[in-house]
Automatic annotation (TrEMBL):
Molecular function per GO: ATP binding; GMP synthase activity
Origin superkingdom: Bacteria
GO cellular component labels: cytosol
The keyword Ligase appears for this protein: yes
CDD domains, per the entry: GMP_synthase_C
Keywords assigned: ATP-binding, Glutamine amidotransferase, GMP biosynthesis, Ligase, Nucleotide-binding, Purine biosynthesis
Residues annotated as binding ATP: S140, G141, G142, V143, D144, S145, S146
Lineage of the species this protein comes from: Bacteria, Bacillati, Bacillota, Clostridia, Eubacteriales
All residue ranges annotated as the GMPS ATP-PPase domain in the record: 113-302
EC annotation from Swiss-Prot or TrEMBL: 6.3.5.2
Pfam family membership, one: GMP_synt_C
Entry protein name: GMP synthase (glutamine-hydrolyzing)
SUPFAM superfamilies: Adenine nucleotide alpha hydrolases-like, Class I glutamine amidotransferase-like, GMP synthetase C-terminal dimerisation domain
Pathway it works in: Purine metabolism; GMP biosynthesis; GMP from XMP (L-Gln route): step 1/1
């Protein structure tokens, strides 16, 4: 690697990701590793200039206070103890100054952590791992899988095969964008699978949100398995695993938040080795990598989108007419937010349509039609969320467009509920 590294050893602090991001913001690469790293593991890490022992509330495991071992204390690498026994706690005022002094003055690390160097390193590592063999990637069109695809295309070109499964639950224009960007602009081997009827037939009459999610996830796995078995000579499976996925999967001192297996829970008996080139990047760094690789902003800055897609925004049993109304109303909302400067200001915004009709007037006649719910929220961690204060005149304009342009809709509602008591999605 071309980057110097500061190593953070987990001694029970839940603030490790924050600390890592602070150091990366200084331009120095950092990774989080278990407290009991061995001498061999430490020696295998390239460019380690300093080690931070980061203690915290989870430092006592099974009644015993954990600590780094002789491999660390005897390494000769400069050490900084934070919230560690025998060391004073750092105040917010002195935290950055202390970190800067340790990183640059004590460790003599260079501020050479940047996307150009990261991409160069990963291209070299991918080529070394894959050799002349072939790689398969499930390309959803989301940020992580798109950036992985672009990085692998740069590294191994036609050795990569991407499979894009259109299950009919994507937003307007997204399947077409995946084909345009990766097949036509980046010249990738792209298999496009039109599975719309297959998914919607499976979902017909199913109203329970959890059943819908399971059907969508299971069917995706089956389609991907079927396509993968048509191919020959595939040895590697690429995934869009990113650093928060790994951190949230838990360490020896921090309880797991969620699993980080990112391809819909693909069975391990597919027999592939994993390629995960983004696994040490935070989300904003993934986006920066995508920009550096030349992906369009509409793909790089794509909003958070649930795995089941519009399937959980077409509330209750999915019908094709309501699904299309969700897709069209969502496209109008996104267009108007972009035109009015809210695209980068609001964390997530979308429309949902419940299985509910109300009486209205269409061309002078009574019309029983659907209502569209607009949701626009801001959040830092998705655990809590506040509602964006959308200007009333803009809401009126969006309402006029949706009721005029989206077939079967006569009302537009704005969801004012924060999280809690509501959730971000409706299902």
């Amino acid at each position: 690697m071309k980057q110097d590294m500061i190593l953070i050893l987990d001694l029970g602090s839940e603030a490790n990701p924050r600390l890592a991001r602070e150091i990366r913001a200084m331009g120095v690469y950092t990774e989080i590793h278990p407290h009991d790293i061995s001498a061999e593991e430490l020696e295998a890490l390239p460019g380690v200039k300093g080690i931070i022992l980061n203690g915290g509330p989870n430092r006592v495991v099974d009644g015993v206070e954990i600590d780094a071992g002789p491999a660390v204390y005897g390494s000769g690498i400069p050490l900084l103890c934070i919230e560690h026994s025998g060391a004073p706690a750092l105040s917010e005022d002195t935290r950055e100054q202390t970190l800067r002094s340790f990183v640059f003055d004590t460790c003599r690390a260079e501020a050479n952590w940047n996307m150009d160097n990261f991409i160069s390193d990963q291209v070299e590592l991918i080529r070394r791992q894959v050799g002349t063999k072939k790689v398969l990637l499930a390309l959803s069109g989301g940020v992580d899988s798109s950036v992985v695809a672009a990085l692998l295309i740069r590294a191994i070109g036609k050795q990569l095969t991407c499979v894009h499964v259109n299950h009919g639950l994507l937003r307007k224009g997204e399947p077409e964008q995946v084909v345009q960007v990766f097949r036509h602009e980046m010249d990738a081997n792209l298999i496009y699978v039109d599975a719309v009827d297959r998914f919607l037939n499976k979902l017909s009459g199913v109203s329970d949100p959890e059943r819908k999610r399971k059907i969508i996830g299971t069917e995706f796995i089956r389609v991907f398995e079927e396509e993968s078995r048509k191919l020959e000579g595939i040895d590697f499976l690429a995934q869009g695993t990113i650093y928060p996925d790994i951190i949230e999967s838990g360490t020896k001192t921090v309880k797991a938040v969620k699993s980080h297996h990112n391809v819909g829970g693909l069975p391990e008996d597919l027999g592939f080795q994993l390629v995960e080139p983004l696994k040490m990047l935070f989300k904003d760094e993934v986006r920066a990598c995508g920009k550096a690789l030349g992906l369009p902003d509409s793909m790089v800055y794509r909003q958070p989108f649930p795995g089941p897609g519009l399937g959980v925004r077409c509330l209750g049993a999915i019908t094709r007419d309501r699904l299309e109304a969700v897709r069209e109303s969502d496209a109008i909302l996104r267009e108007e937010f972009a035109k009015n400067g809210l695209e980068g200001k609001v964390w997530q915004y979308f429309t949902a349509i419940p299985d509910l009709k109300s009486v209205g007037v269409r061309d002078g006649r009574r019309a029983d039609e659907w209502c569209v719910i607009i949701r626009a929220v801001n959040t830092v961690d998705a655990m809590t969320a506040t509602v964006e204060n959308v200007p009333f005149d803009l809401l009126q304009h969006i309402t006029a467009r949706i009721t005029a342009e989206v077939q079967g809709v006569n009302r537009v509602l704005f969801d004012l509920t924060p999280k809690p008591s509501g959730t971000i999605e409706w299902e």
